[in-house]
């Protein structure tokens, strides 16, 4: 397994997941419901968090979802080839991030990605009880209250694809997003915005062009 140039064998490596090639030829659809950031049910069936994760592990594994083959950086800086299988976590992460993208405004959504990366690092480095991790907990506790809704995914031969979204906190406005005639966005705003948005770049290019010509 240490030879990262070779595909890992099926036997003795994977216990939870079937090979994507041997997964069912028909997709499996799941709807996961969250309330204030906590998963509550699968396909309308409410269950405890532990049982929910176990169910996603089983269903995801049967569809070949959640295999990871990667070269990672250990805490001491050594690179290591690691193989994981995490079907339940893969599905949960996919649906949670999709729901976040629906209910968070742009800047919060972008900053949450930075927080998630740092949170993962602190966890991997064994700094779960650090001051920074505690501070990030406070941030996550505040923003997760908006994460309520249902995400539908399709599991098929190793893939987990979001195919539907629903939330009372959704910031998606069809009348603003559509390109049809029913669009309520005033397109006249675009011309002025484009001019202002590009002005700093235009000035920078102009100044540097003059310097280059001297």
Please tell me about this protein's structure.
This protein has 214 residues and is an alpha+beta fold. It folds into two domains: 20-172, Alpha-Beta Complex (Argininosuccinate synthetase, chain A, domain 2), CATH 3.90.1260.10; 175-214, Single alpha-helices involved in coiled-coils or other helix-helix interfaces (Up-down Bundle). 43% of the residues lie in helices and 21% in strands. The protein has six helices and seven strands. The strands form two sheets. Strands 3-2-1-6-7 form a five-stranded antiparallel sheet, covered by helices on one side. The radius of gyration is 23 Å and the shape is globular.
The average pLDDT value, as a whole number, equals 93
Shape: globular
CATH class of the largest domain: Alpha Beta
Please indicate the percent range of residues in DSSP E strands (runs of 2 or more): 15-25%
How many domain modules? Answer: 2
Strand order across the largest sheet: 3-2-1-6-7
Taking all Cα atoms into account, the compactness measure Rg is 23 Å
Query: Strand tally, please?
Result: 7
Q: What letter string, H or E per element, gives the SSE order? A: EEEHEEHHHEEHH
By CATH's scheme, which homologous superfamily of the largest domain applies? Argininosuccinate synthetase, chain A, domain 2
Please identify, by name, the CATH architecture of the largest domain: Alpha-Beta Complex
Report on the biggest sheet: 5 strands, antiparallel
Q: What is the helix content? A: 40-55%
User: Any low-confidence stretches, pLDDT <50, length ≥5?
Assistant: none
**Structural class designation:** alpha+beta
**What is the CATH T-level topology of the largest domain?**
Argininosuccinate synthetase, chain A, domain 2
Count of helix runs: 6
> Could you tell me how far the N terminus lies from the C terminus, measured between alpha carbons in angstroms?
59 Å
């Amino acid at each position: 397994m240490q030879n990262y140039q070779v595909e890992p064998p099926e036997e003795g490596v994977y216990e939870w997941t079937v090979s994507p090639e041997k997964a069912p030829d028909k997709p499996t659809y799941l709807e996961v419901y969250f309330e204030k950031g906590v998963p509550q049910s699968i396909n309308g069936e409410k269950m405890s968090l532990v049982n929910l994760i176990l169910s996603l592990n089983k269903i995801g594994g049967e569809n070949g979802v959640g295999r990871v083959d990667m070269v990672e950086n250990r805490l001491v800086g050594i690179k290591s080839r690691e193989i994981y299988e995490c079907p339940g976590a893969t599905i949960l992460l996919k649906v949670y991030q999709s729901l976040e993208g629906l209910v968070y405004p742009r800047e919060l959504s972008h900053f949450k990605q930075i927080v998630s990366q740092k949170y993962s690092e602190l966890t991997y480095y064994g700094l779960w009880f650090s001051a920074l991790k505690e501070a990030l907990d406070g941030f996550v506790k505040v923003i997760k209250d908006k994460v309520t809704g249902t995400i539908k995914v399709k599991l098929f031969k190793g893939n987990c694809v979001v195919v539907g979204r629903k939330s009372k906190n959704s910031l998606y406005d069809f009348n603003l997003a559509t390109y049809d005639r029913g669009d309520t966005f005033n397109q006249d705003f675009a011309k002025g915005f484009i001019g202002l948005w590009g002005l700093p770049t235009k000035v920078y290019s102009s100044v540097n062009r003059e310097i280059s010509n001297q």
